[in-house]
Design brief:
Layout (H helix, E strand, L loop, with lengths): L1 H12 L4 H45 L4 H6 L7 H15 L2 E6 L5 E11 L10 E11 L9
Helix pairs in contact: 2-4
Length: 148
């Protein structure tokens, strides 16, 4: 009976530390998943912000109409230089870099914002930031009953 108890004790002692190794592996995996979720959500928020800033810059630029033609009733068109300046000024106030483009016919203004999201958990893996971009455009329409 003594030898049976000794064999059972030896067999059980062969598993000592197995739970500690398993717990360490599971903990690292869980931290990695949580880190990816947090940094992924942060990048989505940064992309949404870039989109919002681009849309607001396009709206600000879209209000820069050519007053000489608008007052006389000839046409309502965006003044390209004033629109680009208004969009760039808005981007500068928002603290982001971007580009402004006006269509050939002067009715469509497009703003592209380029920004970065500083990572929290991915920085431990050597990824300090993720690039994000946002796009916004404004079409200048006018008319009383329907867009012209």
């Amino acid at each position: 009976m003594h030898s049976l108890r000794t064999r059972r004790t030896r067999r059980l002692r062969g598993d000592e530390g197995g739970i500690a190794v398993y717990s360490a592996i599971v903990t690292v995996a869980l931290l990695a998943i949580i880190g990816l979720a947090i940094d992924g959500a942060g990048k989505l928020r940064a992309t949404e912000r870039a989109d919002a800033v681009a849309m607001e810059a396009a709206r600000a630029a879209g209000q820069s109409i050519d007053p000489a033609q608008a007052v006389t009733g000839q046409s309502v068109r965006v003044d390209p230089e004033a629109a680009a300046a208004a969009a760039r000024a808005y981007l500068a106030r928002a603290g982001v870099a971007g580009t402004v483009a006006l269509s050939a016919d002067g009715t469509q203004l497009t703003v592209t914002v380029n920004d970065t999201y500083p990572t929290t958990f991915l920085a431990a893996a050597g990824i300090g930031s993720l690039s994000v971009s946002g796009h916004g455009s404004a079409r200048l329409l006018h008319g009383v009953t329907a867009p012209e």
